[in-house]
From TrEMBL:
Coiled coil: none
Basic and acidic residues bias: start-end ranges: 180-190, 259-277
Gene, per the UniProt record: BRIP1
SMART domains referenced in this protein's UniProt entry, alphabetically: DEXDc2
The species this protein was found in: Stylophora pistillata
Phylogenetic placement of the source organism: Eukaryota, Metazoa, Cnidaria, Anthozoa, Hexacorallia
Protein name (Swiss-Prot/TrEMBL): Fanconi anemia group J protein
């Protein structure tokens, strides 16, 4: 039913879903299937924003909610244009909103129970409490008479107290690209983009304590050392009056790390509280799409719903979000950014140092991004206030309820580690997931060229000669040398596989035998891995000196890839070794930059051919990568317009999908006509075989067909050609005969460029979008045509 705000509210499995429109039956059925195991107390609501066309089969929203509530994975097929993305957003966010309401109710109940317990304790122990006039409990100090309303004192009358420094525990850094220590002072707009790097704050170890007459207890939300005081409240001082009988309980509780004095429950009760706390944890929603452009479209859809104020973030690469005036224009943004953050060259990034100004949801809303936003909005804001959008988006993930990103960020474990993405017990939605198999196989594959291996070997050799962690770099030096030796020894055994390409391929246990020949076995592999982990922990250690030489980020990435793929092949008694192929390839590439002796370059030398060799590990089974994802997430929702046949598709992914749905299209069969043309308007046969395609008769006849379609169809026409050669050939013929100008009179012609340059393609797409906007504007000002339609012509 429609409410006062114009939203349509549907109750699905007890969850009220607000939709910005009257939902298609397809959308309702889909949302019913995606049901996320509810923590079972009340009911959510979905609201839709506008009025879709009704269709026969109810298929979409209920499926989504069903899968989430049952901790079950969902495979949902619904044709393009049937409102999948909007149904996914509304159903997932409706369920999450309902869970927050349940959490609030449970917390109120828990507070009431704790209040009752405290009243009981006070009644039972009143006679044991010391009188406030007891000299042993009178505190005589001017300090406690100051106006410190936020300080709470905790003191024992019989045991001396000590002050412990609020030291951050020193732990081995993880293999993730987390935020290094930064100077986040406010700076004037006239500051330089490159600044002198500051010395890093050295955090004292856990065993460094200072004796005093008071004990400082740092609460869990206390500010870590080295961060801005403006973003954190000062640590809380607590003092408590205790008796002899209570002191033993307090001591044992402290040893067991009992949180604080608020928890007065017995051990049995605390176990129940822990269980409730786990249930109160609300999962985040990770919403993955194929491209950043699709994320922009989903953001626009979200803005139309009542969930537009949800806490959100969008993860992207530096390619899309770097605003540094120099780094953003460079070819290697990742390398240049990391150099500035490391401070190894004596400069720092001012944009990174001000990331704290937009790293929280509150600060983001303060700057105007209070409703659903796109990555371009964050980049614009970052440019205005000179703060880094890339790292701000990652920081926002901590508080966000829904995180948007390309779905390779969720599938590829390497990217997950770099972006600090933890999918444990979270909801994962992959929209337009028909390419998820290729993405998974790609994430489980690796290519090592001889150039890359040699560069890494040279770096390791220098570090060994400089005696930098020699006992750890030397084993990796041996491992990289083994891979190079493998390539060189196999060069004589390569067989021709195609034009200017030769290879030798190993499969299954043949890979194991070939690796054992190079002294790379499961045993030695994990020894190498331990050395690699120690090196990476040292590199990530915030107390490390900037003067210490380290591996380049490219070599670090290469080693990370080797150990990731090796882990897939070696773990669980080589469970997936049969799903891999290993190949040494020799191929030719064209090189344009010819460097002459002395560093001179030829200005008109042209391109020259070079042979490259590489060692490749090809993953043939998407389940190798996706099975890990399936074991971590609370539930996975895959949707697309083309997932059939679902049985084979789900079996290849290595994940069980108990909930499956194939929805009909919202467009009725009577609205679509599909047919073939064997001859044109002149009666000549249309045969696109190689011989016929070269004739002017065929080319002219196809042109006449296209012109007739453009004259008949009131709106867009999309024409596909089998190749760029055919497109170029027909375009030139039509331009010479005058047919091209007749087409221009009827439609705005946009032709895909043959070059693979992204900027050329983007320019063409901008022309297309502009033509669509102009057409919509003209039509809105004029009277709507009685008949409407579009056409697709496939040659």
């Amino acid at each position: 039913m429609e409410n006062e705000d114009g939203q349509f509210v549907y109750t699905i499995h007890g969850v009220k879903v607000s939709f910005p429109c009257k939902a298609y039956p397809t959308q309702l059925s889909m949302m019913n299937m995606v049901r996320f195991e509810s923590t079972s107390y009340m009911s959510p609501t979905e609201r839709f924003p506008y009025n879709p066309i009704p269709i026969k089969n109810k298929v979409v929203i209920p499926e989504i909610i069903k899968g989430i509530e049952r901790h079950q994975n969902s495979l949902l097929e619904s044709p393009t244009g049937s409102g999948k993305s909007l149904a996914l957003l509304c159903s997932c966010l409706a369920w999450q909103s309902a869970e927050y309401e349940k959490k609030a109710k449970i917390e109120e109940q828990m507070k009431a129970e704790v209040g009752n317990d405290e009243c009981c304790i006070k009644t039972c122990h009143d006679e044991q409490k010391p009188l406030p006039t007891d000299p042993a409990h009178v505190i005589k100090s001017e300090y406690f008479h100051q106006n410190n309303s936020n300080l709470h004192e905790k003191i024992s009358s019989e045991t001396p107290l000590k002050t412990e420094t609020a030291a951050t525990p020193k732990k081995m850094p993880e293999q993730s690209e987390s935020l290094p220590g930064r100077d986040i002072e406010s700076r004037s707009p006239t500051d330089d983009d490159f600044q002198t790097a500051k010395k890093r704050f050295r955090t004292p170890g856990n065993n460094q304590t200072v004796s005093s007459s008071k004990k400082r207890r740092v609460q869990p939300n206390a500010r870590p050392s080295g961060e801005d005081e403006a973003d954190h409240e000062p640590p809380e001082w607590t003092m408590e009056l205790t008796t002899d009988r209570e002191r033993q309980n307090i001591s044992s509780s402290s040893a067991a790390n009992v949180p604080d004095k608020k928890d007065k429950s017995s051990p049995d009760d605390s176990g129940k509280s822990d269980t409730k706390s786990e249930r109160l944890k609300i999962p985040k929603i990770f919403f993955g799409t194929r491209t950043h452009k699709q994320i922009a479209q989903i953001s626009r859809e979200l803005k139309k719903t009542v969930y537009k104020h949800v806490k959100m973030t969008i993860l992207s690469s530096r390619e899309h979000s770097c605003v540094h005036p120099v780094v953003s224009k460079g070819k290697s943004k990742n390398e240049e950014c990391k150099k500035l953050l490391d401070g190894s060259e004596g400069t720092a990034c001012r944009y990174y140092q001000k990331v704290h100004t937009i790293r929280s949801q509150t600060s983001l809303r303060y700057h105007g991004l209070s409703v659903a936003w796109d990555i371009e909005d964050l980049v614009t804001l970052g440019s205005q206030i000179k703060a880094c959008p890339y790292y701000a988006a990652r920081e926002l993930m901590r508080e966000a309820d829904i995180i948007f990103c390309p779905y390779n960020y969720l599938i590829d474990p390497k990217i997950r580690m770099q972006m600090d993405i933890d999918l444990k017990d979270q909801i994962v939605v992959l929209d337009e997931a028909h390419n998820v198999e290729d993405s998974s196989r790609e994430a489980g594959s690796l290519t090592l060229t001889t150039v890359e291996l040699q560069n890494t070997l040279d770096e390791l050799d220098k570090l060994v000669q400089m005696r930098v962690l020699t006992e750890h770099h030397q084993p990796l030096h041996l491992m990289i040398g083994s891979f190079l030796r493998w390539i060189h020894e196999s060069s004589a055994e390569l067989k021709e596989r195609g034009f200017e390409q030769s290879s030798k391929v190993w499969s299954g246990m043949e890979i194991v035998a070939a690796m054992e020949k190079q002294a790379i076995t499961p045993g030695t592999f994990y020894i190498y891995f331990d050395h690699y982990m120690y090196i990476m922990a040292t590199i990530k250690d915030p107390t490390r000196s900037n003067d210490m030489p380290t591996l380049s980020t490219h070599s670090q990435s290469l080693l990370e890839g080797i150990f990731l793929i090796g882990k897939y092949m070696m773990e669980n008694d080589m469970q997936y070794i049969s799903d891999y192929r290993c190949a040494v390839l020799k191929t030719s590439v064209m090189v344009r930059d010819v460097v002459l002796p002395g560093g001179w370059r030829r200005s008109h030398g042209g391109a020259r051919k070079e042979w490259t060799q590489s060692l490749n590990f090809w993953c043939l089974n998407p389940a190798v990568v996706l099975s890990e994802l399936g074991s971590q997430a609370r539930c996975i929702v895959l949707t697309s317009g083309t997932l059939s046949p679902m049985a084979s598709f789900s079996s290849e992914l290595g994940i069980k999908f108990p909930i499956q749905l194939e929805a009909n299209h919202v467009i009725a069969n009577s609205q679509v006509w599909v047919g073939t043309l064997s001859s044109g308007p002149s009666g000549s046969a249309i045969n696109a075989s190689y011989r016929s395609a070269e004739t002017f008769t065929f080319q002219d006849e196809v042109g006449k067909v296209l012109l007739h379609v453009c004259e008949t169809v009131p709106h867009g026409v999309l024409c596909f050609f089998p190749s760029y050669n055919m497109l170029d050939k027909l375009s030139k013929r039509w331009q010479s005969t005058g047919l091209w100008s007749k087409l221009v009179d009827r439609k705005v012609l946009v032709s895909e460029p043959r070059s693979g340059d992204k900027s050329d393609f983007d320019d063409i797409m901008h022309q297309f979008y502009h033509a669509v906007r102009v057409s919509e504007g003209e039509e809105s000002n004029a009277q709507q045509v009685a008949e409407s339609g579009n056409s697709v012509l496939v040659l």
